[in-house]
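[agent] plan:
  1. take the single chain provided in the ticket
  2. run structure prediction with default settings
  3. attach structure tokens to the ticket
  4. add a short note for the reviewer (M.T.)
[agent] executing step 1
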Amino acid sequence: MKNKKVLIRIIIAVVIIGVIIGFFMLRKDKDGNEGRLKKLYEKIVSIDQYSFEIAENDTKKTIMAKRGEQTSIDQTSENEGHLTSLIKDGNTYLVFHDKQEYYVYKGNSVEQNILGDGLKEVVDKGNYTTGVEKVNGIRYTFEEYSGTTIFTSLNALNIVEDNVKTKFYFNKNDELVYMRTTYEDTEELLKIKFTESTDDALFEIPSEYAENS
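[agent] step 2 finished; step 3 output follows
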């Protein structure tokens, strides 16, 4: 009987510890002061220029950059080549660097706030879990959200939103450095580099490029 009581106490203690850990791990961003990702979103929508690089590997990356009213989405991949979507002067310029040509879509600027909108969509989910784990041998703090995001290129039909998990990893300076999206047996790890500066070349079309209609 005595052993049984001791066992019951141990079980109760384990349950209580589990509840406490769960309480601290599952957090809701109610006042805007807790979430690292929300702080990043608020910075991005408040500053005049930034560069946000997303790299899957050495040959496939996307740079989302903004400078004033100009937005550049620069994509490079081994299979698809080098393509830039440049939004300025109220128009969108689709630039094919490998062909040295571009197209102009007048009065079209629908992707001007794509990064801010994409982060807001994640932040507005509200609930997220936090923890610490290693990526490439280094420990980072993460925030994990459920549901799809604009940052993943996972290809799957009939995705169950609640089964998609994305972890945003932050270093000791609270800088976002990685994103990891998992869905069933599929995983995608992206390296992130965010700076408050931009490269002039992202907003220019070389003079030797030909305009197509």
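[agent] step 4 note for reviewer: The longest strand covers residues 186-195.
[agent] ticket updated
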